[in-house]
Design a protein that fits this description.
Layout (H helix, E strand, L loop, with lengths): L1 H10 L3 H12 L5 H10 L30 E7 L11 E7 L5 E6 L4 H14 L6 E4 L8 H9 L2 E4 L9 H13 L16
Parallel strand pairs: 1-4, 4-5
Antiparallel strand pairs: 1-2, 2-3
Helix pairs in contact: 1-2, 2-3
Length: 196
Amino acid sequence: MAKLLYLRQTYHFKPDKIAMHLDRYHEIRISKSGDFRFLKRLQLNRLPQNQRYKTYEARWRRYEKPEPGHRIQVDVKFLERLKGSGERYSQYAAIDDCTLLRVLKIFESVDQRASIKFIDYALSKMPFRTHVIQTENGGELQGQFHGHFLDKGIQHVYIKPRLPHLNGKVERNHKIYEDEFYRKFEGIVIDDTDLF
């Protein structure tokens, strides 16, 4: 049961995800209801306020584009400086609004050249033609980056300032990567971007 507690307290997994994780990685089979009863006994059955269930009316309505490549959401996530390393990494992510196909790449620098390299890499991995790229208003996504799309015949649009939910799919994926991947590296030093 220590594993169950660890998954709940560290990753805030729900009972069904805990059951799936224990079965897949540790070959421990326990039902969702058994997980929930155990968590309730320890008074850990309630998630933090920002992760609690919301009624259907209170949730954001899901939107999606009608065809693959119609709109690609692109965002940059600055990763915390890794302990013991002088490097600061940035994760570029692109996700197709229709198919949810995503492309990730880690860079050591955040500038327009790195942004152009990433977008060329992402477009080469997408199996369909891209019509529109949607980004935030960051300096690394301006100027030459914007002109790069015009040269390729792709429209580039910016979301409104201070409204990250307009780039919601890629923002949500950043949270998933943080919860399920980066937390597992706490205390580990990796100072090689290719390995990272």
